[in-house]
Amino acid sequence: MKLGLINSAWVQSGQPTEFGLRKTKEIGFDTVDVFLDPLDADQQERRLVKEECDRLGLPIVSLPCVAVGLIDFNPSVRAFHIQRVEAYLDLAYEYEAKNVLLVIGEYIWNREVIPPEEQWRLGVEAVRELGRRAARLDLEIALELEPFPLSLINTVDTMDRFLRDVDLPNVMANLDISHLVLSKVPAEEIRKLRGRVGHVHLSDCDGRVHGDLPPGRGVVDFAPYLREIKTLELGDRVISIELEYSPEPDKIVEWVAEAYRETDKLLAAQGLRS
């Protein structure tokens, strides 16, 4: 498998976007996931990212998109978020990416007032509509499994159910190893998603709260999850490192380099990367 980095890791560097892209390539990553909202970025920024990645030989694989309004009970809000994700799909097509990584959000009001089945239905309908749009662009949607109690998709079983309800071959799962640990999902449950995993995130955590740390700085036992991922035979798909802020912002390059080095060792030990 290829090893990528979500470029939001460089946010605290205080440097221009191209700084993070260049460092990503210098450190040794194969690919990059670009965290860029097409409704916020102007045309100059959008073009700069593509041109710099092309110049570096750093393929853009995924565009992460948080779209919690897809399950909002107000039709106007939901319609806006569908249009916003469509803009991500258009940008992913422009960038020659493989997928839009989609976070669809959480039940509101503690699963009270509005029946949770209704929010589930709204999510399924919205993602199905977006999946059909993605298919016309030869793109996938990768749904992220979130580790929070009220997230619609927070276990392998809820991911399995959601994918079955959407029922489109290009709407797939994203597996985040630290999220699986936080949700107390055993590694062997990954087998239920065989043939339906489009993307993987990797980071460490303290076992209690969301952390996105470099491997080795938390408690995650990566080996069982990576062994199961290997059995999925994902070919040249990508494992992308997701990092939150470094406690030492002036050493962000060292922080990212450490994450690369330790992840590369973990993947090599399981025969996932030479």
Plain-language structure description:
The chain is α/β, with parallel strands linked by helices and about 270 residues long. The chain has one domain: Alpha-Beta Barrel (TIM Barrel), CATH 3.20.20.150. Helices cover about 40% and strands about 15% of the residues. Strands 1-2-3-4-5-6-7-8 form an 8-stranded parallel beta barrel, surrounded by 5 helices. Helix 6 links the parallel strand 6 and strand 7. Helix 1 runs parallel beside helix 2 and helix 4 packs across helix 5. The chain is globular, with a radius of gyration of 18 Å.
What are its keywords?
274 residues; alpha/beta; TIM Barrel; eight-stranded parallel barrel; 8 strands
Order of helices and strands: EHEHEHEHEHEHEHEH
What is the approximate shape? Answer: globular
Strand content range: 5-15%
Span between termini: 9 Å
**Biggest sheet architecture:** 8 strands, parallel, barrel
Radius of gyration: 18 Å
Give the neighbour order of strands across the main sheet.
1-2-3-4-5-6-7-8
The beta-strand count equals: 8
State the CATH topology.
TIM Barrel
Helix content: 40-55%
Q: Calculate the mean pLDDT score and round it.
A: 95
**CATH architectural arrangement:** Alpha-Beta Barrel
Task: Catalogue the unreliable spans.
Answer: none
- Class in CATH? Alpha Beta
Going by helix content, strand content and strand pairing, the class is alpha/beta
**Total domain modules:** 1
- The count of helical stretches stands at 8
Give me the CATH superfamily: Divalent-metal-dependent TIM barrel enzymes
